[in-house]
Amino acid sequence: DNVERRQRAGIGARIVVRRVAVRDAGRLHRLCTGGTALSFQAAVVFAVGVGALGGPFLGSWLGPEYIAPVLGPLRAVSAGYALVAVNVVAFYTAWGTGRVGLTLALHGLLAVTLAVAGLAWIPAHGADGAAAAFMVAAGWNLPFIIAVERAVFGAVAWGAWGRLAAGVGVAGAAQWWVTEDWLAPRAVSLP
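The structure assignment produced for this chain is given below.
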């Protein structure tokens, strides 16, 4: 069952983090920043790919009349899931090093933000409002990563994060251009 597998993976990740943290804090820091950078890059590829190719895919699958009402929410939700995905390493680092209060604070902020934004935006904007509320709530994952890095390692590697953001930004823009302007117009319709 999927929930059981995810629970086992989480327990395994906590054990690994705890063992590495006891032996070599510098190695754990490199592992965490490198793992977060990798998940950040994968999340951008996912979000840009879904954002750029989601419309042509849905149009060929369900028909062109379905694209307009769902494309905005699809792009917002894919961006939100990308923001959730980047915190996986920081989340398990916090758990494995005994900073469970940080994960509790993140979930509290996510819940309150999603509830308030959802109550404000869903009645007026429907699916667009729900998707925007999710994306805004998911934005708390980025400050969470910084908070975990500061709490666990005592400092934040701002230079590394700046280089990562610049590199991912350039790569994401290039991917968007290729998929949106070149690949999407050439997408083959499904029978």
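Interim note for the steering committee: The first helix runs from residue 2 to 23. The chain is about 85% helix and 0% strand.
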